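Hi support team,

I submitted a single chain yesterday and got back a structure, but I'm not sure I'm reading the token output correctly. Could someone confirm the output below corresponds to the sequence I sent? I've pasted both exactly as they appear in my results page.

Thanks,
R.
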Amino acid sequence: MAENLRFRNPELAHNIALKIKSLAQNAGKIKICHVCGTHEWTITHYGLRSLLPENVEVIAGPGCPVCIVPAAEIDEAVQLAQMGNVVTCFGDVLRVPGSKMSLLEAKAEGADVRIVYATSDAVEMAKHEPNKQFVFFAVGFETTAPSTAVEALGNPPKNLSFLVSHRLIPPAMELLLGLGDLQIDGFIAPGHVSAIIGLKPYELFPRIYRMPTVVAGFEPIDVLMSIYMIAKQHVEGRPILENEYPRVVKPDGNPRALEMMNKAFTVTGGNWRGIGRLPDSSLQLRESLAEYDARLKFNVHVEQGKDILLGCECHLVIIGKIKPNQCPMFLKACTPEKPVGACMVSSEGTCRVWAKNVAVQD
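Hi R., thanks for writing in. Yes, this is the structure output for that exact sequence:
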């Protein structure tokens, strides 16, 4: 509850919460959507929803980069591992379910699957073991895409290739606005992604969709301030793009990172787990880097993947239509120890966050 806040400066938090309540008291329902796993962790871990008036709700959108990797791309990684390649990936990718198995299950059956902490780790492994073929499974949003681009452009060893599964956030935000049965009155845009892409990609939301949009940092006060800023815009009927996180996010983002991404990737359509195919939402290596494209190099072919298992409602959690505890499997058949859906796997997954902080949920 509000009396048990576990972060610094609770008095400031209470003052912001009072301002939100004062703004929203005659405003009707205000539903705000964030698209960042770290924002959900902050909101849930610190019990920020308990500070908000009943008519102000914050829902989680598709902000977990691991959760939205389609099963077909997990299947591709598994297929590459079963071919005898060394597949490297970040740790939270290991248990994401594919159509038949996860990379962890492939590893249990004898495939060489290794955890890395940076793209450069895969490069170094390939250099030290030149007789093996290595694949880096490149998962993530605009936050991690620059590191993949840097290594792909940096003349990597010939025995290394990339299975690219990078996705772009703004197209997913736009998709949410097209769902007729999902009310959204404002967006909290992710700070990490925005540090790379800047503010311009969000300009269409207030301009075209009349949607208040605020880029926010990750401290509890950051999130509360962004909610206040959105509520103020909503009440005043003045949707604009605001930057609550100027200490990190600059209007132009990170020009060098954007330059490297542009040199390494082209933008194409891509499938998102629980959502389907979104135009202009996926990155693929440019033709000039085709020799490092694992799909082309090893002629990878996967049929349509199976994203959601029977009974799992992860797809509805991903787009914010339901809360994790409204899924019949939550903390029953699906737990952090034995996840069924992708939302329970990653530390940024909404179900995983709620499972680890269930005591502060309403």
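A quick pointer for reading it: The chain has a mean pLDDT of 94. Let us know if anything else looks off.

Best,
Support desk
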